[in-house]
Amino acid sequence: MTAARRTLALVLLTMAIMVGAALPASAEFAAVRPGPQLGVDTYTVAPPTGVLVTKSQCYLTTTTREVKTTGLTTSVTITSRTEPTETVVFDETTATVGNTTTTTTRTTRLDVGLRWTASASKGVVGYAVVAHAPGASGAIDSTVGTTWNERVDARYLGYTPTLAVRTLTSYGWTADSAQTGALTC
After folding, report:
1. What is the pLDDT of residues 4-24, one digit of tens each?
2. Which of 113, 111, 106 is nearest to 154 (CA)?
3. DSSP string covering 93-109
4. Domain residue limits, the chain
């Protein structure tokens, strides 16, 4: 009889589950509560202002290397002089007279400097100096201060470069200043 009771209980339980699953579910809520207010803030990174070229001067360096060979002895003499110039020169000449070879190299370097007022944006970690030329631009150096000085190859002046300063932030946003006028000697 125990087996018959178990079977009957199993059949009744199965029927109860089937009938219960067929009935629609319903629920009522008595209280309505508003959710949190959400908003979206926007932020703009301020570029540096007042970018000023503080220095744009070319210098011609003339280096002479004289190699003199006498028998088994070779002596080398190197002299160099630097002077301000307004002409961009890059050349090298070599001349040999007897047992002495003289090589003269002339190169022009541009000393350039910038100064600016810091960005008022939050999270500023530094600045990048950006060079612009027709059809191209790129960051050439970075600094944490508000001044920059560098000596560069004056041949770049042939591309009529301008400079700008880019604000760098801890969260990756940037903003560029207005560009300077074209650099010259």
Report:
1. 777 766 666 666 666 566 667
2. 111
3. EEEEETTEEEEEEEEEE
4. 49-176
